[in-house]
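Hey,
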Amino acid sequence: MIRQHFRQNQISQAFTLVELLVVIAIVGVLIGLLLPAVQSAREAARKMSCANNLKQLGLALHNYLSTQRVFPPATIVDGSRLSQPWSGQTMLLPYLEAGNEFSKINFSIGYHDGINKAAFPPNGVAAVRIPTLLCPSEANDRARLNTSTGQAEHYPINYALGVGQYLVYNPRNSQTGGGAFTANGRLGQRDFIDGLSNTIGVSEVKAFMPRFHDSVLPTTQPSNASDVASQIRGGEWGPQSGHTEWVCGRAIHNGFTTAFGPNTRVPYRAADGKSYDIDVTSSREGSSSSAVTYAIVISRSYHWGFVNSLIMDGSVRSISNSIQLTLWQNLGARADGGIIGDY
């Protein structure tokens, strides 16, 4: 009798199938509610870390200014160094806790010259990861491999220099795009007529961007992003090559332009039938002593709805995709006299 009563007690205390399913459903709902909150917290942390990287770049720029009396050039293409021009970012290495890397570089020769490769075998400093130049939200934080050897050949970059609106560099008369950084530039604070606080210096870009380079582009800037692809003539196509070379001083890798606003899609349908969001540049800086460099290189971010940007006074702003285009272009110019409102 006692044993039977005990068994009945056990049965009455057990879960029924319906009760078990209800519990599973409640747990599933709770997980569904919790995951977005966790993801949101992670993204907030990544956004903060990204902004901190830009602040470090701002400090580096001003330390460089204090030492050299000028900001670094976007690149140097002075005739003797037309091939493999170094990026302005490489010149900031001593101020980004990368003095060891900087000390081993021979800037008078290219980054893939044997001497520079030997300093950082097997493929030189170009393949070295510089943490401050990478956003924690970057989905492709990995080396770009040499297609023949499979070895790491380059490392990408997420923080690009502002090099103008559409024109980047004219080697025939040294005209530049009027951005915070220019080819062969020796720009000091006095050259920022609009003021350091009204000029964007560095902004986010995505690594491994589909791109054209050495194309023929119109001398007049396209008015709509959807028109760009139809105006590209020739050039080299790479479905995932843009912003993959942090050492390279060409806008397709280390720069951005303000022809269109943050995160603007520039559509292109390739021969493989796929649709791509692209960047494009005409003759790359230093690849010709006469051809002009025009570029449409968009500031893009993995942060939803905005890009993080470094203002030349050292402050960091999250700039919305919906910013008025003329305001974005005014911010990208150091001496256009444009009125800067709220953004």
